Amino acid sequence: LGVSERCKPRHGWCSGGRRYVPVRLLDVAGLVPGASEGKGLGNQFLDDLRHADVLIHVVDASGTTDASGRETRGYDPIDDIQWLRQEVEAWIWGNLDKKWSGVVRRHVAVKATPVETLHAQLAGYGTPREIVQRALDRLPRDLVNEFSRWEAKTELRQFVHAFLDERFPTIVALNKIDMPDSDKNISAIMKRYHSTSKNNLLVDGVRLDNIVLTSALGECFLRKMHKQLFIHYEPGSDDFSTEMPSLKPLDEKTRRRLETIRDLVLFRYGSTGVQEAIVRAVDALGYIPVYPVKSLATFGAPQQGPAFRDCVLVKPGTTVREFARKLHNQALDRSYAGAETIGGIQLGEADVIVPGKNNVIKYTTNNE
After folding, report:
1. Which pLDDT score is estimated for 35?
2. How far is 333 from 341, CA to CA, in rounded Å?
3. Angle, nearest 10°, between helix axes 157-167 and 80-97?
4. Quick count: other Cβ atoms within 10 Å of Cβ 317?
5. Residues 32, 68: contact at Cβ < 8 Å?
6. Residue 171 Ramachandran class (φ > 0 left, ψ -120 to 50 alpha, else beta)
7. Model pLDDT for residues 341-363, shown as the tens digit of each residue
8. Angle of helix 114-122 relative to helix 129-137, nearest 10 degrees?
9. Which residues pair with 175 in a beta bridge?
């Protein structure tokens, strides 16, 4: 669109024609085996999950941290993905199991639908109704029709398993990829989940294409050096530059460390993987970037100035009118007159927002 130099967002930044949109990350308390039974900080961790839309499970691929989070050597992380999933599943199932007989009795008494009953029980996990419906859709239809006869240890457990796949999409970050023993452990984990790439099924809540190799320490160091103007580095890129005139000179120790990251991480794996893990997490939710603008001529204010100041991530299926409500609450909704996108194309209120088609939107009101 020829406005790269004028792209100055309120939040995030622009670089090289690419817009970086911030997302909120929550570093939750560590989880240990037995957390669903109250061991370690499990209750705090599991409670934190209520606020998450997607999980990035960081696994120490080097084997230098054990299942309890203690430093060690030679630990095999092959089961880490599995036991975390089992703990979350046991926590949710346990909460439902305690009151299941009463839930079923009420379900029958009020003649509710399965989705109504389950949504009432799962709303505390930040669960919209459509996620409950999608989880039910994963089950055989005849099983759903027999909802009033569900047993907690069988049918309910089967539902909770499907529910987790929908409620908590999971990206696995195999971290410390430049450490000794990482290659061996990465190969073993990839082999375990290799079958998921063929049939598109989830195993322990993940697929092979949602496992990302990362070096968080390498990413942190590269960003630090970039911020201090020793190198030029774009998050997610496969290299960095030290040759630009505006950069400060490097001492020999720092230069060697940078070369180590370049050789063991960037050249070998194509990136540190950190940016990729975050992008995969957003992609797992299917979120769509929408750019509300005041002028389709300048992509900003009517007068020439900063372009694409705002970017909002919305759920798939969001309509033009729904986004207006999300953007300006009731103010725009009361005076809503219409909307258009690039090329002066008029948009209907019920038009679903689609990336690359109508996700740059100018709204008009009755006050204009």
Report:
1. 67
2. 18
3. 120
4. 11
5. yes
6. beta
7. 999 999 999 999 999 999 999 99
8. 130
9. 60
- Confidence tier at 203 by pLDDT (50, 70, 90): confident
The 55-60 sheet, strands edge to edge? 55-60, 170-175, 211-213
Q: Which uninterrupted H or E stretch holds 101?
A: helix 100-110
Q: What is the pLDDT of residues 292-332, one digit of tens each?
A: 998 898 888 777 778 889 999 998 999 999 998 888 666 67
Which one, of 224, 311, 223, 227, lies nearest residue 271 by Cα? 223
Local structure of residue 251 (DSSP, 8 states): P
CB 202 within 8 A of CB 165: yes
- Is the model more confident about 192 or about 46? 192
* Cβ pair 117, 103 in contact under 8 A: yes
Q: What is the pLDDT of residues 108-166, one digit of tens each?
A: 999 999 999 999 999 888 898 999 999 999 999 999 999 999 999 999 999 999 999 99
User: Residue 134: what residue type?
Assistant: R
Q: Which residue's structure tokens are 């909002």?
A: 312
Q: What tokens appear for 16 in the block? A: 């090289």
Inter-residue contact 326 to 312 (CB < 8 Å): yes
Q: Which of 165, 158, 161, 155 is nearest to 200 (CA)?
A: 165
Counting Cα atoms < 13 Å in the Cβ hemisphere of 46 gives 26
CA–CA dist 293, 319 (Å, integer): 17
- Average pLDDT, stretch 1-5? 75
The two structure tokens encoding residue 273: 């993987």
Mean pLDDT for all residues in the chain: 90
Contact criterion met (CB below 8 Å) for 318 and 252? no
DSSP state of 60: E
Q: Residue 69 gets which letter from DSSP? A: S
Residue 188 pLDDT > 70: yes
Q: Which amino acid is at 224?
A: K
Output the six-digit token pair for 262: 């370049």
